[in-house]
């Protein structure tokens, strides 16, 4: 049986760590990435870690003919893990059409190809944003999917609906949507990590760049949320734990263990930390004091979100092994490596 897996967005943050995890489990990986929010250097980092250079296709999934040609060339894929998407909440509010084109059209083109196969396995990179501000915490997979707070969140909701609808009518398609909470951290080797192009949209790269002196100070968006310290609460999960979950989910599909041909799992630690607690965790592991100031709330941000992970723990036999301090320490090591490269 083929062990060749397509990873779209495989040079991105979560994609690259998942490629490493797949190769370490003996899978042969083909990466599609258009380098719009990633760097070809990441391919070198993956190769240094695993001693295997994955196949790479520089391809824009929005170009349907290119997608069709890719599947003609790689007809022996055992599965697809789909990361390629635009992912910044704030940017999606400013430029919704970019997000709908990039996140929805590309998914449809991939599924159209998989529909033609006798059997296919598909893992979708989804998000806890589908829950909006949940009524109850921690959030279970049965929590209602609420009206999205941002076009980004909406693309994840629509994406899941498209996959579920397709699975109903394509019996050979088996799919899992993984709803991530907040991925942070880097590979322990510091060969790969989060590499935002331009101004970071996520908290931890902003923290590490501020600590490295690249940013004057960190902006904490909102200090009047109804939380113990007034800042937003999130479930910060180490990217290494997240990568491992993709391999476990893929193996579940390949082994035919699904009860239904479409399943959904939360991926988080099950614990919430506020923005100020995240800053304190970084300060503790790095020994650096972070300059920060409070700014206005950002449109699209919710108050609090953390996962109930019992379903993934039980069904996938997976649980997060790293804590927020582990993740912050690896993120800081990665930032220091980037600084060395620039000198």
Automatic annotation (TrEMBL):
Copy the pathway line from the protein's UniProt record: Carbohydrate metabolism; galactose metabolism
Catalyzed reactions: UDP-alpha-D-glucose = UDP-alpha-D-galactose
Q: Which GO terms describe its molecular function?
A: UDP-glucose 4-epimerase activity
InterPro entries attached here?
Answer: NAD(P)-bd_dom (IPR016040), NAD(P)-bd_dom_sf (IPR036291), UDP_G4E (IPR005886)
Q: Give the keywords, sorted.
A: Carbohydrate metabolism, Isomerase, NAD
The cofactor named in the record is: NAD(+)
Q: Name the Enzyme Commission number(s) assigned to this protein.
A: 5.1.3.2
| Protein's UniProt keywords contain Zinc-finger | no
Pfam families hit by this protein? GDP_Man_Dehyd
| Residue span(s) of domain NAD(P)-binding | 6-328
What does the record note on quaternary structure? Homodimer.
Q: Which family does it belong to?
A: Belongs to the NAD(P)-dependent epimerase/dehydratase family.
This chain belongs to the protein called: UDP-glucose 4-epimerase
Q: Which gene encodes it?
A: galE
């Amino acid at each position: 049986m083929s062990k060749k897996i397509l990873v779209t967005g495989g040079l991105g943050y979560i994609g690259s760590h998942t490629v490493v995890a797949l190769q370490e489990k003996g899978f042969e990986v083909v990466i599609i990435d258009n380098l719009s929010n990633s760097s070809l250097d990441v391919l070198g980092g993956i190769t240094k870690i695993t001693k295997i250079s994955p196949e790479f296709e520089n391809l824009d999934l929005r170009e349907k003919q290119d997608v069709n040609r890719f599947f003609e060339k790689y007809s022996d894929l055992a599965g697809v893990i789909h990361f390629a998407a635009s992912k910044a909440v704030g940017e999606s509010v400013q430029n919704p059409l970019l997000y709908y084109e990039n996140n929805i059209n590309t998914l449809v083109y991939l599924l159209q190809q998989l529909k033609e196969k006798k059997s296919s396995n598909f893992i979708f990179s989804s998000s806890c944003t589908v829950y909006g501000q949940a009524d109850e915490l921690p959030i279970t997979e049965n929590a209602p999917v609420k009206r999205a707070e941002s076009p980004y969140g909406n693309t994840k909701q629509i994406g899941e609906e498209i996959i579920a609808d397709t699975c109903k009518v394509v019996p050979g398609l088996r799919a899992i949507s993984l709803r991530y909470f907040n991925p942070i951290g880097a590979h322990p080797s510091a060969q790969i990590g989060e590499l935002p192009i331009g101004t970071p949209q996520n908290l931890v790269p902003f923290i590490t760049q501020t600590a490295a002196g690249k940013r004057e100070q960190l902006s904490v968006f909102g200090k009047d949320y109804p939380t113990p310290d007034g800042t937003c609460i999130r479930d910060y999960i180490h990217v290494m734990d997240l990568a491992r979950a993709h391999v476990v989910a893929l193996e579940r599909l390949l082994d035919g263990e699904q009860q239904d041909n479409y399943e959904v799992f939360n991926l988080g630690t099950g614990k919430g930390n506020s923005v100020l607690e995240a800053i304190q965790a970084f300060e503790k592991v790095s020994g650096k004091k972070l300059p920060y100031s409070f700014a206005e709330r950002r449109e699209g941000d919710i108050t609090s979100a953390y996962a109930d992970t019992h379903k993934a723990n039980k069904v996938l036999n997976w649980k997060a092994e790293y804590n927020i301090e582990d993740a912050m320490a690896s993120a800081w090591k990665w930032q220091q490596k980037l600084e060395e490269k620039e000198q």
